[in-house]
Amino acid sequence: MKTLVLIDSDALTRALIAQCLAGREWRVFEAEDGQAGLDLVVKHKPIAVLCDLRTPKRNGFQVCRWIREQPSLQPTRVILMTVSRFANDRETAFAAGADDYLIKPIAPPELIRTMAACRDNGEAAPAEPAPEDIASGPTLIRFWGVRGSIPTPGRDTSTYGGNTSCVEIRVGGQIIILDAGSGIRRLGQSLMKEVSTTGLNVLILVTHTHWDHIQGFPFFVPAYHPKVNIRILGYEGAVHGLRGALFEQMQTAFFPVGLNQMATHLTFEELTDMQFNLGVVKVRTMFANHPGICLGYRLSTPSGDIVYMPDHEAYERCEVERQRAERTASPDGLAYARIQDEKVVDFLRDADLVIADSQYDAIEYPSRRGWGHTCADDTVQLAMRAGAKRLALFHHDPDHSDEKIATMVERAQSEVAQNDGKLVVTAAREGEEISL
Ligand SMILES: [Zn+2]
Ligand SMILES: [Zn+2]
Q1: Last-in-domain residue among 105, 124, 143
Q2: I need a labelling partner for 356 at 20 to 30 A (CA). Which of 22, 26, 77, 153 fits?
Q3: Which of 103, 124, 145 is the C-terminal boundary of a domain?
């Protein structure tokens, strides 16, 4: 039996829907207000929730948002229904995380078709890979997008690449994608070759929802394939939730295809813990110094640790330049900034590969202070202090040509040579593969 929680303040509507689904493998629990409905959802963990928009105590949008915030309820499909024909309500429903939206009166065939899709989706979802499949093999890192802020195709950027942030991590059979900048488009094309009859599981970890980290997602072809299972994980931003930001960039004003038209096996998980596991990969996170809410990820894999911190402004130089610009002197402010940098050093400690924001050089930095990005000299210093083995300069400035980036790498390497000389520094390059 499939379980449905049906929330509607109108007893007759509830009775009609329950009657329509009776004998079709559905066990229906009814509630006349949103709060009572959520109590039933918690108790029964249903396959689907069918909820009217205008319900007392908690309205349909609130019910939907609350369910979407619960990691344990990610598989639950939420279908909102209403007598409203306002286009805004429909868009808001999908932004809140609804999987489907029905206008009342609902014809029985439409209701049956919608509910059958819930069942089919559950059955068609590809199986998660077995732990033994994902534990074996080396860790591979492939760069698909290394640029910051905006894509910069052209002759001047053809060596390092012009696509925005996207890094593929392979741990045995497990696929983890870091950010969905424009680089994810070509990664998607590559992944399509691997979609087999049993499907494909893909995990996307998003650092934050600035456009250069999500703009490629509408062009990620696997998201339109019914046998691909995509989990998108990230933290709620300052203004929008993760799903809301991805949804909004696909609204009609910006894109012809809506998020709800993508594959049905698309789940969003708003993270709350700073540590969690993805299969055999242990993930630690840290808040970056960047406008809004932005995270860095440390992935501990069986063959080594990778730190990905694409958008971050080192604290000490920021404070020094602030004091210089404002003609003030605050030893306490400086000491505090150094303590914050030490926390970053701890986060990078002994990492095998650090992929980190190095957008500016020391001459450019003062005029870009407070924009949330780091001077490459500081990235090198932090990585050296942490005892990291390898550093890939990342989030290249859109105004930096290949020649400029090569100069920055040379400068970084001489900075290392003047110290202990152990850290290997390169600039991340589109198409490059690193194996741990
Ligand atoms: Zn960025
Ligand atoms: Zn950003």
Answers
A1: 124
A2: 153
A3: 124
Which residues touch 94 (CB under 8 Å, ≥6 apart)? 101, 247, 258, 259, 260
Dist. CA 395 → ligand 1 center (Å) = 7
Give the C-alpha distances (Å, rounded to integers) separating 271 from 42, 234, 258, 307: 19, 6, 24, 18
How far is it, in rounded angstroms, from Cα 281 to Cα 198? 23
C-alpha to C-alpha distance for 90 and 84, rounded to whole angstroms: 9
Domain count, the chain: 2
Q: Looking at residues 246-265, what average pLDDT do you find?
A: 81
> Distance from the CA of 214 to the center of ligand 1, in angstroms?
10
**140/67 same-domain check:** no
Nearest to 102 by CA among 112, 68, 120, 259: 112
Q: Which SS3 state, helix, strand or coil, does residue 33 take? A: coil
Whole-prediction pTM = 0.77
Ligand with minimal distance to 398 CA:
1
Query: Measured in angstroms, how far is the CA atom of residue 236 from the centroid of ligand 1?
Result: 16
Give the pLDDT confidence score for residue 121 in this predicted structure. Answer: 42
Tell me, in angstroms, the distance from the centre of ligand 2 to residue 52's CA.
37
Ligand nearest to the CA of 237: 2
The residue whose two tokens read 């012009």 is 162
Does one domain contain both 226 and 350? yes
* Average pLDDT estimate for 229-250: 84
Range in 104-108, 319-323, 344-348, 429-433 with the lowest mean pLDDT = 104-108
| 235 CA → ligand 2 middle, Å | 13
Q: 119 and 189: one domain?
A: no
Give 188-193 contacts, CB < 8 A, sequence gap 24+.
188/219, 188/220, 188/221, 188/222, 188/223, 189/221, 191/221, 191/222, 191/228, 192/221, 192/222, 192/225
Q: Which ligand lies nearest to the CA atom of residue 178 in the structure? A: 1
433 C-beta neighbours (distance < 10 Å), count? 10
Q: Relative to the alpha carbon of 150, which ligand is closest?
A: 1
- State the residue range of the domain holding 112: 2-124
Cis check for the bond before 105: say yes or no (omega within 30 of 0): yes
Are 156 and 119 part of one and the same domain? no
Residues 31, 177 within the same domain: no
Residue 196's identity, in one-letter code, is S
CA–CA distance, 52 with 103 (Å, rounded to integer): 10
Verify that 140 and 109 share a domain, yes or no: no
